[in-house]
Amino acid sequence: MLLALLLCYAGFTALCLSMPRHHDELLGRKPSARRGRGLKLFGWLMLGLSLWATVAANGWGLGLVDWFAVLMCSALALVLLMPYRPKLALVLAALSLLASPVAAWAQC
Chain-centre distance of CA 80, in angstroms? Predict the structure, then answer.
C-alpha cells in the first residue's frame, strides 16, 4: 500500500504541475504545451501504476478499495500542502519517486 501511496502522490503532483497556474507557482514559469502534455501523461501513468500495485497486492476486491483510499489520502495531502508549503509538496513528490523502487522491492 505504501507503493501505491507514493505513486499516487507523484501522479497527482505531476497532474498539478501540468496546469499553468501551479507550474508557474512552483517552478516560476508557464509550462510549454509539450511539457504540459508530458506531465499529464506521466501523472496518469503513475495513477495507473498505483492501481496495478494495489490490485497486485490485494486482488480486485480489496485492491480497488485500497486504491480509492490511497487516492483520497494522497490528494488530500497535496491539497493541504499547496496553499501553505508548495515547495514542500514538490520535494515530497520527488522523494516519493525516489522511494517507490524501494517500496516496490519491499512489496515483493
Answer: 14
